[in-house]
Amino acid sequence: MDRLERIVPAMEGFGFRAAKGQTIRVTDVNGEQVADFVVYRADDPTERIDPNVTMDALHKMKVVPGDILYSNKYQPILTVLKDDCGVHDFINAACRREMYELLYDKKEHPSCHDNLSLALAEFGLSEPDQHYPFNLFMNTVIGPDGSITVKRPVSRAGDSIELRAEMDLICAISACPCSESECNGYVCTPIRVEVY
Ligand SMILES: [Zn+2]
Hints:
Oligomer: single chain
Organism: Paenibacillus herberti
Strand content: 25-35%
Protein name: DUF1989 domain-containing protein
Bound molecules: zinc ion
């Protein structure tokens, strides 16, 4: 499959293919920007990346190079090759319009849910009831009392993560459009995607 390089503008999404064995590199261009990332098996989209299954299989919620990310069918779907940041999120669902209504009293706010759904629609995938992405560069801190706080990302400009596709994939990524919280350092910025 061909190489690909694309800047995903701030607050937007992008869909693309990656063939088995290709590397997907996602770069936080300006720093402190979360990218919600989902991948589906190209020849059977009932199989997708599953952060919950990954946590179950790895017995942890922090990945390092060499770790495998699993599908909902407990198959290796991505492998972490390189990671400049080391802080990503497995537990939050993609932000969606209804979240902005509930938490910020804002209507019709752009969202990762809509960005991902729109990107996947180009490949014929229908909108899921909810997206459960691997949230790249998202800094979620769980307190000893069980509290969950989304802190400012620790990613700096140019930090990237490289993932190897373990099957032919349809992928979608969203430069998270939340400027209301520390999630993206209060400023939404672009993400770069490369496949090679
Ligand atoms: Zn988001």
